[in-house]
Amino acid sequence: MKKYFHFICLVMVLSITSFSPAWSQAIRGRVLNSENLEKLTNVSIVVSGSNKGTVTNIDGEFSLVADKLPVTIVVSMVGYVQVIMTISDSSPVDIALIPQHALGAEVIVSANRTPSRMMESAVSIERFGNSQIHRSPASSYYDIAGWQKGVDITTSSLTFKTISTRGFNASGSPRVNQLVDGMDNQAPALNFFVGSFAGPTDLDIDNVEILPGASSALYGPGGMNGTILITSKDPFQYPGLSVQVRQGLMHVDKRQRDKAASLYDYSMRWAKSWRNKWGIRLSGQYISGTDWLATDSSNYQGAGATGKLIAGNRQSDPNYNGVNVYGDETSVDLRLFMASVLPPGHPLLQNPMMVSRTGYEERDLIDPTTKNLRLSGAVHYRLTPKLEAIMLANWSKGNTVYSSNNRYALKGINIAQYKVELKHNDWFLRSFTTQENAGEAYSANVTAQYMNEAWKPSFNPADIGGSWYPQYTGAFLTALNSGAGVADAHRAARAYADREMPLPGSEEFGKIFGQVRNTPIPQGGLFKEKSQLWMTEGQYNFSRLVKFADIIIGGNWKRYILNSSGTLFIDTANAITINEFGAYAQVSKDILNKRLNLSASGRYDKNEDFDPKFTPRFTALVRVAKDNNLRLSYQTAYRFPSTQQKYIRLDVGAYTLLGGLPWVQQFMNVKESPVYEMKGSSVSSQPYTFTNLKPENCKSFEVGYKALIRSKLLVDAYAYWAKYENFLGRNVLYQPSSAQVYSVVVNSVNKVNTSGYGIGLQYRPDKRNSFFLNAYSDRLSSVDSGFIAFFNTPKYRLNAGYNNNGIGRSARFGFGVNIHWQDAFFFEGEMASGPIRSFTTLDALVSYKLPGLKGLVKLGANNLTNHYYRNAYGSPEIGGIYYVSLALGVL
Fold this sequence. Notes:
Number of helices: 13
Signal peptide: 1-24
Strand content: over 45%
CATH superfamily of the domain at 2-97: Carboxypeptidase-like, regulatory domain
Largest sheet: 22 strands, antiparallel, barrel
Structural class: mainly beta
Distance between the termini: 24 Å
GO molecular function: siderophore uptake transmembrane transporter activity
Membrane topology: Multi-pass membrane protein
Shape: globular
Keywords: Cell outer membrane, Membrane, Receptor, Signal, TonB box, Transmembrane, Transmembrane beta strand, Transport
Family: Belongs to the TonB-dependent receptor family.
């Protein structure tokens, strides 16, 4: 160790000493790791203030020609402390880079839109980088997000996961902003975030920053509960080729599928820079596996978008509606058909006798193979040392499943994002577009209902004898007249009416299913959806021009083009366009000899369908002592109703989803045919009164403390209180004249409060070992009786983990283990509401480094114990994944 100390001292002397002008203009040398003298490849060496630069080769060596000597060079590599040194002659130099193990030293941008140390963030923030991704047992970087305090994951399928923070969890996470390289990652029409399906590949992720809490003041509408920033790797910082091959095994216990199934995951990334001026990167990833199944057969009594679990099954309840059984949403009162054959006053006509059609299971309707192909590329050009032009494209296509008010099979869905950007040290200007194509996406529920109508209509006046309900009625009465009991008569009637029902897997079933699935809504289950989002955004940082404070100003313009040909929206005749613009500013300043930092932010936004909104934010960071900081913040947030909440018109089987703008009153013709509010099975006696739709808003106060103890233990604790108003939800309306049920978007008069707290510990005793532990809680309060807030959040969650990235003298072997536990809670959803059990998952891996190839072999497992769990009611249960992977060029 003493010789290493002398070496470092020598290098430090060389880095700060200037010699007399050199006769030669050539610069040569090598770069080493200061701790183990390992040669470092792909280290960036740049002549300060110019575009001239190079990178080290496989032996850690570099060569660079300068215009004149002496010259100052900047030596940098991700994960190491940057070195700036002056070279005065042509003698070869050895440069030692010190690994950056320091906790809290990461540079973040999400907290205030400008780079700052994570340790000094004035609001709560969670972050993980590419090194953690490579060494983690998680199957994707989205899963790693679920180990951060204050964060929850909602899983709809193998490749569709949603990150949420501080409550109100749901697929799509409407109260959280998600930005990928500065681009809004929300699908413009389908209204869910596609980061886990269409974002950067796993090999191309630089870091993920999660900002829990209200954040609209800087990041715009939607940031009610948080903002997520996903950043891809820069080709100048991460040059070279990397590949990863991973194969896994799922369904090992055959609980959901007939046999165990393989998971395939192939990734590659290539990046190169020329003369520190041009940079290019290309990456791709292909994932294929047999998806998890939603198999809940519990009996669900629905009333529009609300409902409850009840006793019974298909054998005992004629009106059975299985949670994950599709097609049985069609339900009719049998008295409509018995009244024509039974005398008035007959006992069977006294009370409702609801009977549902027979449905199909999810395995019969959704392709079991999930596929995801992601391609990404970017070209960078440094016009000046401070100004860079970027062209970027992310493209994705595949099959996945999404849970919302239905189970949606997103077959052949295609999402693409394209961006051009000018990025300066002090400002940026970017424009991007999101192009969405639903492909052959369809609703499993609606498709199953139309399949039933295709093989035998529920009721056809032109062919009463060939209709399902008349056949059921006749067989039911016949059985009763033969002496059968009511329950047995219902079973006999169903068997008779279903005698021609096509069996899953049969040729007839495949023919009808294909026909219905490819017929657009409202005659079939297909979405014809090709919508777009266009956005331009800019920001200027005045810190170099204004000395008394740090000031940033920015603004954006956004345009939606909704085009579903009437299958999702009211755009039967023409596409719907929506314009939105916003502007923001932030002022921050250190005072009291930099003991206190104060900041104030404000944002103004205008959506053409609503009045303008202004959201302020105030923060304070108190530097109590070195690496001990107290933070305080008051933040406000809001969200405009989504495109679906404004313009949706979708028949989902048992009811029709409608938006909340005034056009819905004309569509329902409420002046001539009033509608009445439904609560459960009861209907109001007074016509429903409509009110104007407004944005939802939130006010939040937070206090937190972060401390770094002896550079090894990082403690971070927080508590928050929030108040929500103008909740965006739905009311169920019944129209007697048409016997139709509608679910209409409205603002709730209820106000609810949430609160929560959390604490996180990170301990790194040395460069090889690291531990973490965090616990957090979120609570909903002040909820009026009968009000459904869709909070959907466990009261308590706990994460813990240990990682060793080098055992023994060679430090090639490593291992890691992570544990996640969450409390039981009651999930409230539009598709179904029901209990979610508490569960614990265990992820683990062992790894082996291949230093010459910068490679890593991993043998790992997600949900090692294969204890099935789900985190959203109506979504699938998740079992274990066991895998082996080989990654090259990642270390």
